Amino acid sequence: AKRTKRSMLRVGVRATRPPALAIRTASFWKSSSSGTAQPPPPSPAAANEEMVSISEVEKLLYSGVRAIGYNDSEAQTMRDAMMWAQLRDNNQGIIKLTSGGLAKSADGVPTVELDSPAGARVNGNQVMSMVVLDHAVGLAINKAKSASKIGVVGTFNTAQSMGACGFYIEKIAKEGLVGILMATSPEFVAPFGAKQPILGTNPIACAVPTDRGLMLMDQATAAFPWFGLLEAKTAGRKIPPDVAYDADGIPTDDPAKALKGALRTFDRGYKSSNLALMVELLAGPLVGGAHKDKLTAKNWGNLVIAIDPAMLGDAATFYRAAGEVLDRVRTAERLPGVTEMVIPGEREAAKAAARLQQGVLPIEKNMLSELRALAAQFDDQAASSADSIAERQTQLIEKLISRLDRLEAKMGEAAMTQEKLSQQQQRLETVALESLRSANGVSAPARGRAT
Question: I want to staple 140 with a disulfide (CB 3.0 to 4.6 A). Which of 99, 153, 288, 414 is the partner?
């Protein structure tokens, strides 16, 4: 029943794509003489890094998530979201797990509380945010692919970061839809002119598919990511001196002091502060998320929007026009010293594609050590569980053998009893026949004494 309920709530996403759209992955390496695209050789690991196979990182992430109590389905979703980020050097990857940012959430499934052809509000029920967002994205895509041609989905009642926004809106764009995502978080950021953290890091992301590549913008409104502070603290690195304040409102390059103070908005001015405030309102109160004390309220909000370009005109025309805009940016006259113009998300996508082809990526050693230690807990649990299962199976087999032995003994006894009954029946028949012949004056042939 639990599986059925989960299946009913899981939203299937159609994989069809408008025929006019062909999203190509950005590639920044040149073709060889054979015409086959060749990725650059892996960059050597820094002194504090280790080159690790991607397959090992995937296994470590999965085991690490399982070790803190998430089930198989949840662990796969969370692993994929963190792996997407790690491949792009996005600090929404491994550090989220090793820093304790993914503490076990409540068991259950997200539920849709308000629903309409074009929108929905999802109660996360304290389920892991990555799982809730994955569900919300599926809802938004399906609504945008329906007659309404738009899907607006808000989520609330979750208490963890959902990771890299780009992971989710890329799914929307791959369906030929424009994707927008806004997210709130606890109060880590000071508005312009203040030292007190009032706003979240409040990322905003937008993905636009075109016939000449994908524009994927994914950025926080903060000058530095909060998980970046944790990552820098773990690695013993300093942070840029103008991205955060300490508790007294003095700029600091010490991540430990910044964690006790506040981050600044990305332009250190009122424009980025205004944008952060916009996200705070749209992804907070609008969707039912907490508007203050979010860390203790455990009620973070998110807003997902998926738009079918056909809602506002011919989709193919849009893809071509949007593609031309990207090309105009790529070929714009550059300032001195600028070697190339890139579209948001292209460089990260190229890095991820190269690493996937090379099969390795660099991981900071301290963080890797913590990840391996966490993953080992699940592996030990699994091994112990396997030993326990094997022991129980052995005990069961021994019980079955014992029962079979007893059954065979009883069957043997039954066979002997049956043979005795058969012999007795034969003797009775002989006596009866002799008695009948004697009564008729016919002597019976000697057949042995009847008992």
Answer: 153
| Residue 383: per-residue pLDDT | 61
Domain range 2-13+45-382, CATH class: alpha beta
d(CA 390, CA 279): 53
Which residues neighbour 411 within 8 Å (Cβ) at sequence distance 6 or greater? none
Tens of pLDDT, residue by residue over 378-400, are 977 766 555 566 666 767 777 77
Which among 280, 101, 321 has a CA at the least distance from the CA of 184?
280
Global pTM reads 0.75
Residues of the chain with pLDDT under 70: 1-44, 382-392, 394, 439-451
Q: What percent of the chain has pLDDT over 70?
A: 85
